[in-house]
Amino acid sequence: MLQQDLDGENDAIARYIARVGQAEELHMYHLAQQLRNILAVEQEHAMDLEQALGK
């Protein structure tokens, strides 16, 4: 179950990275920064799950 959660977090991280790039291409820098903040939280979740899985 934790591995599925980690897979979901990694998928979300990849999608947020793509969205940050899209926002910057559209010169929507405020949105890009908000997405980076969300991305940071997702990355923290992924690290917590990796730790719980012993990775």
Keywords:
55 residues; mainly alpha; elongated
Explain what you see.
The protein is mainly alpha-helical. It has one domain (2-52). Helices cover 87% and strands 0% of the residues. It has two helices and no strands. It has helices spanning 2-25, 29-52. Helix 1 (2-25) packs antiparallel against helix 2 (29-52). The radius of gyration is 13 Å and the shape is elongated.
Please summarize what this structure is.
Helices cover 87% and strands 0% of the residues. With 55 residues, the protein is mainly alpha-helical. The chain has one domain (2-52).
Write the layout of secondary structure elements.
Blueprint: H1 2-25, H2 29-52
Helix pairs in contact: 1-2
Tally the helices: 2
Beta percentage is under 5%
The CA-CA distance between the termini, in Å, is 15 Å
Helical fraction: over 70%
**What spatial form do the alpha-carbon principal axes imply?**
elongated
The average pLDDT value, as a whole number, equals 97
* Poorly predicted sequence stretches spanning 5 or more consecutive residues: none
Domain unit count: 1
- Rg: 13 Å
